[in-house]
Amino acid sequence: MLGPMSRAGNLLSERDREILREVIATYLSSGEPVSSRRVAKDRQIQLSAATIRNVMADLEDMGYLRQPHVSAGRLPTEAGFHLFIDDLMPAEKVSDDDRRLIDDRLQTARGTGKELTEETSKLLSQLSHHVGVVLTPALGAAVMRAIEFVPLSGRKVLCVVVAENGFVENKLVITDELIPREELVRISNYLTENYAGRSLFEIREELLRMMSDERARLDEMLRRAVELARDGMNMGHAPSLVVDGTHSLFDASPNMARIEGMFQMFAERARLAGLLNRCLDADGVRVVLGQDSRLTEELGFGLVVRGYRAGDGVSGSIAVVGPARMEYPRMVPLVNYLGERLSEVLAGGL
After folding, report:
1. Buried b / exposed e across 196-221, counting CB within 10 Å, b at 16+?
2. Whole-angstrom distance, CA of residue 279 vs CA of residue 281
3. pLDDT averaged over the chain?
4. Could you read off the pLDDT of 310-326 as tens digits, one per residue?
5. pLDDT tens by residue, 238-257
6. What is the separation, in whole angstroms, between the first and last Cα of the chain?
7. Predicted structure pTM score
8. How are strands ordered across the β-sheet holding 168-174?
9. What is the pLDDT of residue 161?
10. Cβ of 266: how many Cβ atoms within 10 Å?
11. Is the separation of the CB atoms in 15 and 58 below 8 Å?
12. Which CATH class is domain 4-88?
């Protein structure tokens, strides 16, 4: 997500870019305003502190750096962060140990989409030391592979829907009458054979139309199938969030009001889900911070997000949520690799 100032980064001289890169890299590691004297200690720059100070003043005028007060060093602005992330950041790779851990854990969790997304959120949190978030696709938009109705006690029936993308959803249905197990098996087979390969929304809409059909009223099995599927496939339109590592918020900020706001955001989920939904893109990593969105501006956090594909093309996204001062050279490749691997596992490629 490039801002107008970061797009102008190609107007900077190589010396300007080198100093800006060093200022931001130093700030990310220290968390403190960076002075010209500190930058001058970098052997690769080989410029005097006075020259560096003049360049830093120019970078401040251009909107890439800011000075909290007159006697302090400089801090990166949002435009500076974006230019660093998009163009100046050293290209790091996910370590071999982290790759092996990710591959092993996803292979172990392989099964349902729910298990994989839960493991992915844990890996994101564990490896980033921030909050790991996975936005899962709305099941109703997914393509059905199979449906099964399992009898429980009395008139309770468990509807189990398996989507082509590996996600499984269970829904308890209370029937108007006691339905024998053999009848439930027939209904499950009928719906799977006739409707597999279509989205749950499409299936449910067609079955609702069938409720007024003469054949559906006369055929007892078909009537029960329509009623069970109507209630069992009412999975909702909204995607869901899988969140892990919220305890890391206490390490990220001393501001209790901001921490409370973050916890409220994770509890309510809808606003964060909306932000992640707007970032869906399976082909690259995006960084959202500050004024990039109303939510990040209000709560002062950063988001490193990447989309993934869940088999049948239904999209979700994964993200690391943490302070704006994150270790972006490590976070960006980490999120990118995990997004790629999750897509491959859901497609059956790991």
Report:
1. eeebbbebbeebeebeeeeebeeeee
2. 6
3. 84
4. 765 557 899 999 988 89
5. 668 899 998 888 876 677 88
6. 30
7. 0.76
8. 144-151, 156-163, 168-174
9. 86
10. 15
11. no
12. mainly alpha
